[in-house]
Each structure stands twice: as C-alpha cells, then as structure tokens.
Write a structure and sequence with these properties.
- The complex is a heterodimer of chains A (about 260) and B (about 280).
- Chain A has about 260 residues and is mainly alpha-helical.
- Chain A has two domains: about 45 residues, no CATH class; about 200 residues, MetI-like fold (Orthogonal Bundle).
- The longest helix of chain A has about 30 residues.
- Chain B has about 280 residues and is an all-alpha fold.
- Classes of the chains: A mainly alpha (about 260), B mainly alpha (about 280).
Chain lengths: ~260, ~280
C-alpha cells in the first residue's frame, strides 16, 4: 500500500512542477540545446542572453509596470469597496446573507465576454482604452464577488461578543470598528487583498478587449508566444510567475477550498 | 433591520449593478437588436448557420468534458493519497499546489513548450519508446482538444484537490472504524462511505470547474491560434476581427445560457445552502 501511494504522489508532483522547470530551463539555455529535434531535459549550457535580450529590448518593462500598478490598485479598491459590504453581510440574518451571497456567486459565473464587449464600447467613448483606470474598473467586476465572499467569512468568524465587550469598556461605535473588529480581521483582509492582486495580475480577456497599444504583462507574454520566440516567452513567463509563487507561498497556510472555489480560474 | 445595517452594501451593489449587470443586459439587448432599430433574431440565425460557431459549441463542451474527467481523476487520486498521511505529506502538498497560482497565459506558454513538435513531451515519449515519430499535438482537432484540456487540467487540478481534500476531512473517522470492525474491504469502504459522503464536494468541484471551462479563452487562443474556436474566442473574433458586435453578443448570450443552465441544475441538485457553506 505505501509504495504505490508514494509513487503516485511523486508522479503527480513531477506533473505539477515539471512544466515550470522546463520553462525556467528554456529561459537560460543556449538556443542550440532547445531548437533541435532532440531537446535535452537537463541543462548543459547556461546563458543569460535571453534575459538580457528581454530587458534590453525595453518592451517588457512598461507592461510589467502597468500590471504591477493595476494589480495594486485593484487590490486596494476591492478592499475599500468590499469590506463595508462584507461587514454588513456578516451581521445580517442568515437568510438575507445567503441570498446576497448566492447573488454574488451568480455574478461571478457570468461569462467575461458578455461583460467585456459593452464595457469596451463604452470605454472607447470615454477615452479609457489603454488606461490603468479603465483596466482597474473592469478587473473589479471579476474581483469584487470573490473578495466580498472571503471577507464575509472573515467577519463572520469574529464573535459579536468581542464588539459588545469593547462597547462596554467605553469604545464608541467607530472606535470599536477601527480598534477591535478591523484589527481582528487583518489576516482575512491580507488574504483577500492578495487574491485580488493575483486575479488582476493574470487577467487576460478583459485586458485584450481594453487594450489598443499599452499591453499588460499577460498580453506581452502572449505577444512573444504569438511571435514564436520560445526564449523570450520563457523568460517573460518566468518573470511573471516569480512574484506569484512568492505570494501563493505566503498564502498557502491560509487557503480554504471554498474561498478558492470562487477565486481561481 | 435598520437602514444602517445595509448602508455598507450600497457601494458594492451599485458598482456591480453598473459594471456587471448593465453590461450583461446590454449584451442581451444587442444580441436581439436590428442595426436599423427594432427587434430581430437574425443574429442568432446568422451564427447558427456559421460553420465555425457549431464547431465552437462542440469544442467548448468537449474541452469541458475531457478537462473535468482529467481533473476529477487526478484531483481525487491526489486527495486520497494525501489524506492517508503519507511520509512527506507537507512537501507533496506544497509541490502539488504550485500550478494553482501560475497565470493562465504562463500555463499556455509552458504547455506550448512541452507540446511543440520538437517539444519535451515528444522527446520523453521518444525516449520511452512510446512513439516512433514526433506528434503534432495541435495538428488534428481531436489532439488539439486533448492538449487544451490537459493544459487546463494542469492548472486547476490543485483546486479540485483542495475541494476534495476538504470534503474528505469532513468525513468522520469512526465510520471507517465501524466498517473495518464489520470486515468491509477497502474498496467497499470507498464505495459505501467515501464516495457518497464526498458527493457535495464533488458536485461543487464539478460546477465551479465546469462553468470556468465553459468560459475558457486564453488557453485555446494561445495554444492553437484560431485552430480551435470555443465560444469565448468565437465572440472575441467576431467583435475584434470582423467588427460585428451583434453576432459577438449573440454568441455570448448562448454561452450565458449554457452557464445558467449548468448553475440552475447544480442548485437544484445541491440546494443553495450547500453552495454557500
């Protein structure tokens, strides 16, 4: 019994991590090792020419900046909009809460193409194409239901008695909210913020509709892929994945399946 | 209930109404608007007669079906292996979860490297002697469907695993003890305890993943170019390439209907409380 389980897990782990290893390897391999009928699996030569090429061409830094700024703003705006809603939701009677959460669940299930088309038409008129503002506004539609969901479970986990005790000790309603409730909600707020960030960082469809020239990072990777340049693709993709692995590493201890059900696509 | 209990919901509700509900409604309206004014079903008739649209519907369903089968199989295998507390469990769990956060476009880039004609999968299979000549993995429609589904499964199997793991952890251990006392075989325990009690988690994984797979966009586009139209990419090409918002809207509405049908049957199957736990 033990041996087959270990073999199964090892096989699944290779399947999960192997492709990323290949990506990293291609990004630092001499072309002769990759562009051949028999590519080698282990790295033999090592070169930084693709990375240098990626950074020197100056094509990757603007998208990198745009994606970083967009994702940061999306995370901040999502928390600002969703936290008050989630706080109210957590204090509502269960039946109301279920109804509203179900509504959020349905909103999340809507196809992006049916949102992207009218939004692109309107943003064209408003002059928001290619802008960070437009992208943030669009990304929020995908992110808000998830963030509201996660924060509602966060606030639900904070017992009302804690707030009542603070009130008894003479805290005003605002002081209670600021000094007690929000402090206790910090882990949930961090998780929700990171999820929103990740969501925006990798978003592809809305960015495609709302971009004429100023690409985001996913569009830049797609551009290299479309050109058929394996090395620039691999280097840019690695660059894009590094912060994600860092963040998900931080997130892992706080992952809950039901949150992710709403959060990962 | 006092109004101040609801005031925090207002910004969120207004935002989602303005940027989600209104756009979807205007897509619906667009799909039945005649360009000169008035209501028409011409756009639906037009896409129904379009060869690529039929292909897109079939491809969407096929990618969803193949992908779900792979994800549930691998996710269940991984969850069952991890729940038995094997040696190195923590390390394996971390490794298995890695693809979860990887951006979809990166998954496409990675899989294109693996699935290219001179890619790594062919090299591995050649070395193992499983194939004699390199395979063009997106060369035929059947293979392309399979390749896109595998790429999708690579990214989301960890999510299915997490959902199923949570489901398995909720099954009380006493049930297995009782079954063992009664002399039930491992297989019998699996069929009589694990599977039925895992049903809520399985249906949840199925619906969440199914709806996402219906909406698949980046992977078919990046892996096959125009080679494998699905509903989302069909709508995209109609709008951005052919400049026809009406047919784009009509195909989005078909996608919306498919999703609503799936969600409705799920809610009927599971009951809303189960969704929200």
């Amino acid at each position: 019994m033990r041996r087959p389980v270990a073999l199964l897990l090892a096989g699944l782990a290779c399947w999960a991590v192997g492709p990323l290893y290949l990506m990293l390897k291609v990004s630092v391999s001499p072309p002769g090792e990759v562009m051949t009928a028999r590519p080698t699996l282990l790295p033999h030569g090592l070169t930084l020419e693709h990375w240098r090429g990626l950074l020197d061409a100056g094509q990757v830094l603007p998208p990198l900046g745009k994606s970083l700024v967009t994702a940061g703003l999306v995370a901040a705006a999502a928390l600002l909009l969703a936290a008050p809603a989630a706080y109210n939701l957590a204090r509502l009677p269960a039946r109301w809460r279920y109804g509203i959460l179900l509504g959020l669940f349905l909103v999340r299930m809507l196809p992006e193409v049916s949102i992207a088309l009218p939004v692109a038409v309107v943003f064209l008129r408003w002059g928001l194409m290619d802008s960070v503002t437009g992208l943030v506004l669009a990304h929020l539609t995908l992110v808000l239901p998830v963030v509201a969901w996660v924060l509602t479970t966060t606030f639900l986990a904070i017992p009302r008695e804690v707030e009542e005790a603070a009130a008894l000790d003479g805290c005003s309603a605002w002081q209670t909210l600021w000094r007690v409730t929000l402090r206790l909600a910090v882990p949930g707020l961090v998780v929700a913020g990171l999820l929103a960030w990740l969501f925006s960082w990798e978003e592809f469809l809305l960015a495609t509709y709302l971009t004429l020239g100023a690409k985001t990072m996913p569009l830049q990777v797609y551009y290299y892929l479309y050109q058929g340049n394996w090395f620039l693709t691999a280097a840019a993709a690695t660059l894009m994945t590094a912060p994600v692995l860092l963040l998900t590493g931080l997130l892992q201890r706080h992952l809950r399946a039901t949150w992710l059900a709403g959060a990962v696509r | 209930m006092r109004p101040r209990d609801l005031v925090g919901l207002l910004p969120l509700a207004l935002y989602l109404a303005g940027f989600t509900v209104v756009p979807v409604a205007s897509t619906l309206a667009l799909s039945v608007s005649a360009p000169g004014g008035g209501i028409t079903l011409d756009h639906f008739r037009r896409i129904a007669g379009h060869y690529q649209f039929g292909e897109a519907v079939v491809n969407t369903l096929a990618v969803t079906g193949i992908g779900l089968a792979l994800e549930l199989l691998l996710g269940l295998a991984a969850a069952l292996a991890l729940i038995g507390r094997p040696a190195g469990r923590q390390v394996f769990q971390v490794l298995l979860l890695v693809p979860l956060g990887v951006p979809t476009i990166v998954a496409a880039a990675v899989m294109r490297t693996a699935f290219g004609t001179v890619g790594y999968l062919n090299e591995i299979l050649l070395r193992l002697g499983a194939i004699r000549t390199p395979v063009d993995w997106v060369g035929t429609r059947g293979l392309a469907l399979f390749t896109v589904a595998v790429a999708d499964a690579w990214k989301v199997t960890p999510l299915v695993m997490l959902i199923l793991l949570a489901g398995l952890q909720a099954i009380p251990g006493e049930l297995y003890e009782a079954a063992r006392t009664d002399g039930a075989s491992r297989w019998r325990q699996f069929a009589a305890i694990t599977l039925p009690l895992l049903k809520p988690a399985l249906t949840m994984a199925l619906i969440v993943r199914g709806v996402d797979a219906f909406r698949i966009f980046a992977l078919p586009l990046a892996l096959t170019g125009r080679g494998l139209p699905v509903l989302s990419t069909y709508a995209y090409v109609e709008y951005l390439e052919y400049g026809n918002p009406y047919t784009a809207a009509a195909s989005s509405v078909i996608l919306l209907a498919m999703i609503l049908l799936a969600v409705a049957s799920y809610l009927k199957l599971a009951g809303p409380e189960e969704v929200l736990r």
